[in-house]
Design a protein that fits this description.
The complex is a heterodimer of chains A (115) and B (115).
Chain A lengths: L2 E3 L4 E5 L4 E3 L2 E3 L6 E7 L6 E7 L7 E2 L2 E6 L4 E6 L8 E8 L2 E4 L1 E3 L3 E6 L1
Parallel strand pairs in A: 2-13
Antiparallel strand pairs in A: 1-4, 3-9, 5-6, 5-10, 7-8, 8-9, 10-12, 10-13
Chain B lengths: L3 E4 L2 E4 L5 E7 L5 E8 L3 E10 L2 E4 L7 E2 L9 E3 L8 E8 L10 E2 L3 E5 L1
Parallel strand pairs in B: 2-11
Antiparallel strand pairs in B: 1-3, 3-8, 4-5, 4-9, 5-6, 7-8, 9-10, 9-11
The chains are: A mainly beta (115), B mainly beta (115).
């Protein structure tokens, strides 16, 4: 079974600074997808960024980028130029199509952006 | 607007009183799933459905039932709720399995308290 681990329960960052969230996963599969979801106080789950395992290039979406290390099974999220609206819970998630469409989540990292 | 609609948003009930949380999607998605979110544990899958009349257990199915009589609806049923089912519940959907890179669309969550 796949597992996803987020080792940082909470992180804080000053506005305009950069913060990096760590995520590691365990799988024996070669083809899979990785995601970062944001959950603000409104509780809505918002897809931030996705990465296909067969792509070596790291995904980027505006101020959000990932560092995907397939051999190390690591998938960290970097938030650049942090904004107050980035304050939220962030979840790393894994999906392997061979096991259906199941998303397996990490325990989450709470990010607080301070003014 | 493409969305997953969950109701109710908040629910307080007493132990043993049957309840149903409704979920409906308007995107013609084949795959639907229920998750519960608990602090430190992230989101864990309760049940999922690959298509109409096809359902299967996730990681934490005990105490829950589901049905998929129509493609758009996937209700979660608690026949005899207990306090350990107090949690935040999410319904989610995605297109046909094999399109995993698209991730899920989530409902807005149901905060359930069982006293």
């Amino acid at each position: 079974a796949q597992t996803v681990t987020q080792s940082q329960p909470e992180m804080s960052v000053q506005e305009a600074e950069t913060v990096t969230l760590s995520c590691t996963y365990d799988t024996s599969e070669n083809n899979y997808y990785l995601f970062w979801y944001k959950q603000p106080p409104s509780r809505q789950m918002i897809l931030v960024i996705r990465q296909e395992a067969y792509k070596q290039q790291n995904a980027t979406e505006n101020r959000f980028s990932v560092n995907f290390q397939k051999a190390a099974k690591s998938f960290s999220l970097k938030i650049s130029d942090s904004q107050l609206g980035d304050t939220a819970m962030y979840f790393c998630a894994f999906m392997n199509e061979a096991a259906g469409n199941k998303l397996t989540f990490g325990g989450g990292t709470r990010v607080l952006v301070k003014p | 607007e493409a969305q997953v609609t969950q109701n109710p948003r908040y629910l307080i009930t007493v132990t043993g009183k049957k309840l149903t949380v409704t979920c409906s999607q308007n995107m013609n998605h084949e795959y639907m799933s229920w998750y519960r979110q608990d602090p430190g544990l992230g989101l864990r899958q309760i049940y999922y459905s690959m298509n109409v009349e096809v359902t299967d257990k996730g990681d934490v199915p005990e105490g829950y039932k589901v049905s998929r009589k129509e493609k758009r609806n996937f209700p979660l049923i608690l026949e005899s709720p207990s306090p350990n089912q107090t949690s935040l519940y999410f319904c989610a959907s995605s297109p046909h399995p094999g399109t995993g890179s698209l991730g899920y669309t989530f409902g807005s969550g149901t905060r359930l308290t069982v006293v």
